[in-house]
Specification:
480 residues, Immunoglobulin-like, rod-shaped
Length: 480
Amino acid sequence: MGTFRRIIAIVRKIAAVPVFLSGLGRRIRFSSALDPPAARPTRTKRRRRPERPPATNAAGRLSGDAAGGQGIWRCDSAFGGKRARQARGGPSNGVGMHRVGRSRPPRTSGRGVVWRRLAARMFGFRTEESAMKSLASVWSRWVHQVAHNLRRPRRRRRPYHVPTEACLEDRVLLAAVSFTQSSYTFEVPENSATGTEVGTPQLTPGSPAAYFYIASGNSTDPFVIDPITGVITVYDPSIDYETTSQYTLTVGALDPVTNTYDTATVTVNVQNVDEDPVFANQNYNFNIAENSANGTFVGTVSATNPTGVPAGTPVFYSITGGNSDGAFTIDPNSGDITVAGPIDFEATSQYTLTVLAGNSYGQSTTTVTINVQNVDEDPVFVNGQFNFNVQETAAIGTVVGTVVATNPNGVPQNTPIFYTIVAGNDAGDFTIDPTTGEISVANALNFEATPQYTLTVLASNSLGFDTVTVVINVQDVLNA
């Protein structure tokens, strides 16, 4: 390799002379009848042609149509033994300039003519044929070959683009699932409705999406967790502070992509809520007339559920004290109190009842005072005094007169009134119908013996009585 490089260096130095001469030859025009100047061919776009080795003889020269001017050349061994490519329109006399190691075919331009003529002039020959028979021809060909190869820059070798396939493995370190805290504390009122939000344990920023679940502490299913958002809500609305005041849950978060998980402790404190029904009044006072009929309305007690009790929870009422004789009753749904037995002012003028209101969560009581109003229940005579006249000769059974008494408003309707003579009838001279109040003669009357009778008549019912004075005047018949 070192010897070859030194040879190449020497050739480049020798080639400097033809390059100079080439530049000089471009400015010199020679005229010759044997070789008229050829027109400069038009440059064509270079393109690659497939190489076809021409047929050669044993001497390594052209064979076949090569001597006929077809323009297909092959270098002799003296010129490196390299194959020439086709030169269109090349000379047919066996002396031609051609390119070696180039992809373009050689051209027989004016520059070739200049070189041949310049070589003939340098060696003292006048014609091209003479130059071909001399060393000048060989020198010209060799110089032209070297100059032609060196005066133009070699075509740069195209860089080899070796197709490669690169597999880039992008490794990303995925974050593991983790909660922001190891424990959380939430509060929820007792008896909260289903779906009431309790709280949400948060994941750390950058944590991947995870699946949330309750791992333990939720055996009775009082709570449920959303597997996507992690929101914990009430599932069983019967959460009772008196039963369980605190729940300790273990909440987990699992990422199926990274196969990582984390757990946290969630403490849910149940807040005590006043669940007992609340009466509208702390005490109730009602009045009722004595002797009121059964079913008579006395009054209504009312209680409502507090805020902590679910809406629509019914309230029930009952009398738990002060009603030993069963004088009153209460509607369990409406709280209406009515008369259920006899009520007598003279027996009991006031009742103090204990009424209870309860729901499914609790109960409360209130005091109901019922005042019995005294009512004039005695029969009332239509007159303050009755005066009758009867002849002394009146037969027994003769009606003297009738006393009438009525029941007051406080006495139930159709209450019967009974009459009787309680005084002034010692001899039994008169009698009275107990239901109608008719007074009639019971014995013979004598004006001279008793000219006037003053009777006391009593009218009574089941609730009371009253009396009235009845004056009976006996008329003397003989003196009439």
